[in-house]
Every structure is written in structure tokens, then in C-alpha cells.
Amino acid sequence: MNKDMRLQALSEFLKKHRAKLQPEAVGMPSGSRRRTLGLRREEVAQIAGVSITWYTWLEQGRDIKVSMQVLESIANALQLNEDERKYLLMLTLEQPLPSNTVEHVPVINSALRRILEELHYCPTIISDRKCNIVGWNQAASSVFMDFGQVPVDERNMIWLLFMRKELKSLAVNWDEFVRGFLAIFRSYYGQYVGDRWYSDFIEKLNRENPEFHKFWNQSDVSSGPEVFIEFRHAKVGKMLFDLTSLQIQGRTDLRCSVYTPSEGSDTEIKMRQIMRKIG
Fold first, then answer.
1. What pLDDT was estimated at residue 96?
2. 119: closest CA among 275, 239, 278?
3. Which of 18, 153, 189, 204 has the highest CB neighbour count under 10 A?
4. How much is the pLDDT for 100?
């Protein structure tokens, strides 16, 4: 990511989170004549203890020097969570992917394969730091699609969510589903700020699907959101899952996303029906 793109990402992030924070949440009167959505710039500056001019420059994406202490004050003022704080620091302090870093090809070792095989009734997907799908079990293929039939260069969870109509029709709460994965993707985006692949991928999706731009601009960040998912499966109808996304320790940044049948639902029974037919 070049400097201009990094500063633009920082500007959009600050604006979105300022707009999300209501005056009452920070002890300020909302006022009947307030035209600004969320907090004003001067209010953020006041809470953070910085000058309005300096904060304005930062939010405008100007290339200015910023200390860690001041960034922490801004993070507190905007009530950012831990993942959002990390993202802010990465964009502002410009921590690029080290030039000597070699990107290792993701490897699904025998232990991971065993985990995939044992989760018979829990659709499970393993992805890398770009959200490329590098492993999955039979349960995932039975609920989502046969990933083996998807071209390798399109086997990316973000790409498929926006470019494959069958996934959009599958998820009843598709908006929430998408936001969860984009929050993970943005977390990686900030962590690997020096990798040009991310900005190229974002530009490509913006061109291919205008809807992506709307969701991406929400600027959610999370290294592991927990999401409740409702699917409408073509063969068994309504299915309820709790999505848990787990980071797998290792140098390739692999992530395991497990869709567990929700407690109290008949989803596991339906998963057993589906898997019996496949078997």
C-alpha cells in the first residue's frame, strides 16, 4: 500500500468511527440543530486533548507526525476496541510488511486435516491471511458449495460472498455474515499494510461489485468476531449456526472458521441427514 492509499484508509476509518459515536455516549448534549452525524471533529479533539487543527489534519489524511500517546488518546476518544486500536496504530505509524518477509505457502498438516475430518456435522473452512480458502471439510461443501470446483484464483471467501449469488441467497442474514468476514479482512489489511495485494484486491472488488464499497466503508475491525448465521438450505430448509473464527498459531496466519449447529435448533439433525445422503 503506498502512502496516499494508507492515508486515505486512515482518513476513512477516523471519519466512520467519529460518525458512529453519539454525543450522549461521551456525555455531550446532542442539540436540536446538530447537522453532523455522530461527533464533530472539535468534540473528538476536545475529548482526546489535542488541537482541532491537528486532529483535522489527521482525519484529512495529511502526512503528519503522530506519537503513540496521542494515538492512544484518540483511540480512547473514539471508544475503539482492541482490534480497532491496532488497526489505527498500523495505519498511522506505517508499519509495513518487512521487506525480508517471505510469504509461506499455507500447508494443511495432518493435525488440521484430522480436525476437519472429525467435525462431521460442523461445516469448517480454513483460510489464510488473504481470506483465501485453503482447506475445508465435507460438511462445508454440503452447505456452501463444492470449493474444489471453484477456480483457485476465485477461491477467496470475500470474493465468493460478493460474486456468487448462491451464497447470498443461502445466508438469510447475509449483511451480518459479510460484515463479520470483512472485519477479519480489515484486521489483516492493517497488519500487512505494506502488501500491495490488499489494495489491488479491494480495487478489483469495488469495480466488480459496487455493493462491496458500501460494506467496506463501514470500517469494522475484528480479529475474531462471533456471528450467528441463519441459512436457507435448498435441501433441508432453515439451518442455524454459530460461527466461531479461530486464529491458528503459526507463520502462515491460518484461520479456522467453524459453523456449529446452534443449541436448541434442529440443525445438527439436518446436517446428519445431508451427510448420510453424501455418504
1. 47
2. 275
3. 189
4. 42
Which parts of the chain sit beneath pLDDT 50?
Answer: 96-102
**Residues 17-26: contacts with CB under 8 Å, at least 24 apart:** 17/78, 17/80, 17/84, 17/219, 18/44, 18/59, 18/78, 21/78, 21/79, 25/79, 26/77, 26/79
What are the backbone dihedrals phi and psi of residue 237, each rounded to the nearest 5 degrees, phi first?
A: 80, -140
- Using the CB atoms, write b or e for 217-252: b if 16+ within 10 Å: eebbbbbebebebbbebeebeebbbbbbbeeeeeee
Contact indicator for 167, 63 with CB cutoff of 8 Å: no
| pLDDT at residue 99 in the model | 40
CA distance 89 to 9: 12
CA angle 243, 249, 252 (to 5 degrees): 100
Q: What does the CA dihedral 99, 84, 211, 3 come to, rounded to 10 degrees?
A: -40
Q: Please state whether beta strands 133-136 and 237-247 pair in parallel, antiparallel, or not at all (unpaired).
A: unpaired
List, for residues 41-93, the tens digit of each pLDDT value: 998 999 988 999 999 999 898 888 888 888 888 988 898 887 788 888 888 87
The span from the CA of 213 to the CA of 210, in Å, is 6
User: From CA 203, how far away is CA 112, in angstroms rounded?
Assistant: 33
In the numeric block, the cell 460484515 is attached to 179
